[in-house]
Amino acid sequence: MKILAILYKGGDAAKAESRLLGTVENQLGLREYLESLGHEYVVSDSKEGPDSDFQKHIVDAEILITTPFHPGYLTADLFEKAKNLKLCVTAGVGSDHIDLNAAVKNKVQVLEVSGSNVVSVAEHVLMSILLLVRNFVPAHEMIERGDWEVSQIARNAFDLEGKVVGTIGAGRIGYRVLQRLVPFDCKELLYYDYAPLPEAAAKAVKTRRVEDLNEFVSQCDVIAVNCPLHEGTRGLVNEELLKHFKKGAYLVNTARGAICDKDAVADALQSGHLSGYAGDVWNVQPAPRDHIWRTAKNPLGGGNGMVPHYSGTTLDAQKRYAEGVKSILENYLTDKPQEPQNVIVGIGKYETKAYGQR
Ligand code: NAD
């Protein structure tokens, strides 16, 4: 059978560092295993347009492995061409690059390695919150420039203690963010999610659920987005919702770029309505060179904590998601049941409740 993997190019870094498993060079460590079973394993980073390897090989591949870090967008149109396709595996967490409704319709299963990088992302969220609230990036840039003007940084630096912090989405990542915030003695930890946390879990981190999104954002000094991208969350943080944010709030988004409206967020940051925006996800990946989120700043010249999409692809995370992909393949190839928490779309139906209320 043909197994197609669309991964990112690792270049010299991947040649020098074999633990960069999620790259074209290191192929999730699967080549020997798959070839020993007689399967054809095609790995490429070429994913855009009709002449790409992605579109060329999707027509007869039975399994597609993709990664959110370099997403091969499997649209409804491509599903029509993918006549052999039975299984899509996401090397990581977040399968919005696959048209999940089309997967349901075409009876193609979609699996993720659930939980594989949730600690990696939660740690990144904590770092991003701190670097925005404490005005870290301009402070470091000042040091590199050779300058030393403490007041220019301190005029917009605060403590996290005593602030209200909220998460949109309190699943694996959102909850881990709340857990990690507990020792910071925030004024309150809030969450907005259509799925309430179990009582004991909410109690353990002393979080309060706010059911109305406008009310939720209006109470938060810091908001982190930790929900999947689906029809109900695309453009969720838009001009209208931003009007309900506290003036000077901070927004962190490591979930998916398209959950936040690109221009509305940039305008809010540039006007000072948002004091900061940080995260690693972009509405198009790789982000174009002139993407406004690369350079937008608040009126005091700070507040930008954007990085490329890497929070969930630390070397620790790559080991976990590479092992997870292998185990999903082993189950598939030997007709064993899959771990239920990994199944996003089963044969002809959604198995998860996280990709929208249906
Ligand atoms: P999860 O399934 O454990 O939790 C998602 C939570 O979001 C669920 O509780 C769900 O009910 C909630 N949710 C869904 N729609 C919502 C909505 N409209 N409003 C509020 N809450 C909503 O998933 P997770 O493991 O916590 O991951 C969350 C997302 O983070 C992934 O889908 C992915 O997009 C993103 N992610 C990013 C990276 C990265 O490297 N930046 C890595 C892993 C995951």
UniProtKB/TrEMBL annotation:
Annotated site (Important for catalytic activity), which positions? Answer: 256, 309
- Where in this chain does the record put each D-isomer specific 2-hydroxyacid dehydrogenase NAD-binding domain? 127-298
The UniProt keyword set, sorted, is: Cytoplasm, NAD, Oxidoreductase
Q: By its UniProt entry, which Gene3D superfamilies does this protein fall under?
A: NAD(P)-binding Rossmann-like Domain (3.40.50.720)
Tell me where in this chain the D-isomer specific 2-hydroxyacid dehydrogenase catalytic domain is found.
Answer: 32-336
Q: NCBIfam families in the record, alphabetically?
A: PRK07574.1
Give the protein's biological function. Answer: Catalyzes the NAD(+)-dependent oxidation of formate to carbon dioxide. Formate oxidation is the final step in the methanol oxidation pathway in methylotrophic microorganisms. Has a role in the detoxification of exogenous formate in non-methylotrophic organisms.
Family, similarity comment = Belongs to the D-isomer specific 2-hydroxyacid dehydrogenase family. FDH subfamily.
Q: What is this protein called?
A: Formate dehydrogenase
Source organism per UniProt: Pisolithus tinctorius Marx 270
